[in-house]
Design brief:
Structural class: alpha+beta
Number of domains: 1
Shape: globular
Order of helices and strands: HHHEEEHEEEEH
Number of strands: 7
CATH topology: Protein Transport Mog1p, Chain A
Largest sheet: 7 strands, antiparallel
CATH architecture: 3-Layer(aba) Sandwich
Oligomer: single chain
Length: 172
């Protein structure tokens, strides 16, 4: 057996791929790359039994990863935006479309991280929400939206501290 055959056999045994296999993979787009990054980021915090990932449609070229918790009665959405100029009252109104009426209760900034705190109502139940915008890549911003029932504010504070220790709330 020649040296080339041995190297090829080792490559295959160690889980490597041949060039033919690589050519059969679908091309990786910037959206699939970005979605993969968001999944890896979110799994640091939302992989325990209390959370399950939802299949959530993307909005145009803006991927969103969403989790729901029956334990907390909460929802988390992690997405991205091109610039913070996209984030305005109209954006927040769309974000809070299911929570009527809703009210912006606080807005603050720590360095380059922005936070919007809101409360709203859905199906007769009051919710607190926090929506962060933070630098992520040179051309993208990370957006994180936590929504918890008002009676689970301690849990909202816990996850806020995990995700953004430098700006968990505007009250801090």
């Amino acid at each position: 057996m020649g040296i080339l055959q041995i190297l090829l056999l080792l490559l295959l045994l160690l889980g490597g791929t041949t060039s033919q296999e690589v050519d059969q993979r679908p091309p990786r787009t910037s959206q699939t790359y970005e979605t993969g990054q968001m999944v890896r980021y979110s799994r640091q915090y939302f992989t325990n039994d209390a959370w399950r990932q939802l299949d959530f449609p993307t909005s145009g070229n803006l991927p969103v990863i969403a989790f729901v918790s029956d334990v907390y009665g909460a929802v988390v959405a992690i997405g991205s935006a091109a610039t913070d100029s996209e984030i305005n009252y109209q954006w927040l109104n769309g974000l809070m479309a299911n929570y009527r009426p809703w009210l912006l209760t606080a807005q603050c900034q720590q360095g380059s991280i922005q936070l919007f705190e809101m409360k709203g109502e859905f199906a007769g139940r009051a919710y607190l929400t926090r929506y962060w915008i933070a630098p992520w890549r040179a051309d993208r911003l990370l957006t994180v939206h936590l929504v918890f029932p008002i009676e689970r504010q301690v849990d909202l504070n816990h996850y806020s501290q995990l995700l953004f220790p430098e700006l968990p709330s505007c009250a801090d």
